[in-house]
Amino acid sequence: MGDPLHTVLCERLGCRYPVVQTAMGWVATPALVAASCEAGAFGFLAGAVMTPVELKAAIAAVKAATDRPFGVNFHMFQPGAEEIVELVIAEKVRAVSFGRGPDAAMIARFRRAGIICMPTVGALKHAVRMAELGCDLVTVQGGEGGGHTGPVATTVLLPQVLDAVKVPVVAAGGFADGRGLAAALAYGAVGVAMGTRFLLTKESPAPDAVKARYLEASPEQIQVSTKVDGIPQRMIRNRLLDRIERAGALGRWIRALAAGQAMQRATGASLGELWRAAQAMAREGHMSLPQALMAASAPTLIQKAVVGGDPDGGLMASGQVAGRIADLPSCRELVDRIATDARERLAALSAGRAAAA
Q1: What is the value of pTM for the model shown?
Q2: Distance between alpha carbon 49 and the CA centroid of its chain, in Å?
Q3: In Å, what is the CA distance from 295 to each residue of 65, 149, 227, 229, 292?
Q4: Cys-Cys crosslink for 170: which of 28, 78, 139, 322, Cβ 3.0 to 4.6 Å?
């Protein structure tokens, strides 16, 4: 009997275990990605918040720290997206992840270059669409997941998608341990993707004060808001989010413009580039221009917390699972624990089935 943890995800991505470290903005740095990959998981760099120059340096840093394969996350609306596509292909990273943007032609180009396309979706229709466009795998995030998220829980969305698409499916939203991995495999997924659990590791770059706030949060304090950019996002309730929730239409415009200026400073993009990116997001996402400006610029608010160490002055995207995480292991300790626990639970289920027979 083969190893139940050696799935098609491991075969395609070249990782030891079917566990993916997601591309959290400002958190999925080269150090975290390399540590995740060395531990046996598959890590994605947060290219969506990097310039092409920064991403090139980040890819080099990961390659210097590990010889394990890794991926890059990006979206086609960010400034410099075309350069990032060329860079990813030239650097021959193993996989790309994205939420929106690449069309069938771009996906085909990645695949011709031998790069796995592995988008993250939060709705059944989007999963079906990504499979139709030619993606190799689909990561399905239920409503428990952090950041932009949908309204349907993982336990409902995951089997819906598994029944609807023929490509392998990775489960995300609410996973943090071996029993979650065992459950996802039992559903028919080929692995799990985790963001918040990897954020709360020793190698995560988030400052100690921010990690402490994540560890203190209860599930009830990790809520969904539509006020940041008009799209549902799950975050830890804090002082800034409370102000955003109370703000009116004028406040949203002021915040959008301020966030745009902050994004310009962080990325070096021109105002024209940011404006065009926001317009493209507005068209694609059927949102207003202020919403699109915030969607393009909101990462700087997350940066203020997870890089700047200000848990009240920035936003803290978080999966609801943070409400039951209580420790800060190393990536190796975490992945080893997940693998051991998953194997024990799967073996116990098999033993029970054999006894019943």
Answers
A1: 0.89
A2: 12
A3: 32, 13, 11, 5, 5
A4: 139
Q: Where in the chain are the domains?
A: 8-205+327-356, 209-306
The CA–CA distances, whole Å, from 13 to 143, 191, 312 equal 26, 11, 37
Query: Is residue 176 within 8 Å of residue 163, measured between CB atoms?
Result: no
Rounded mean pLDDT, 74-98: 93
Q: 133: which residues sit within 8 A by CB, 6+ positions away?
A: 102, 103, 104, 107
10 Å Cβ neighbour count for 186?
Answer: 11
20-65 pLDDT tens trace = 999 999 999 999 999 999 999 999 999 999 999 999 999 999 999 9
Q: What is the mean pLDDT of residues 292-305?
A: 75
pLDDT in tens, 98-157: 976 688 999 999 999 999 999 999 999 999 999 999 999 999 999 999 999 999 999 999
Q: What number of CA atoms fall less than 13 Å from residue 340's CA on the CB side?
A: 6
> Going by C-beta distance under 8 Å and a sequence separation of 6 or more, which residues neighbour residue 57?
none
CA 128 to each of CA 73, 92, 174, 273, 280: distance values in angstroms, whole numbers, following the listed order: 20, 27, 22, 31, 23
Fold of 8-205+327-356: TIM Barrel (3.20.20)
- Give the span between the Cα atoms of 337 and 178, in whole angstroms: 7
Q: How far apart are CA 234 and CA 143, in angstroms?
A: 8
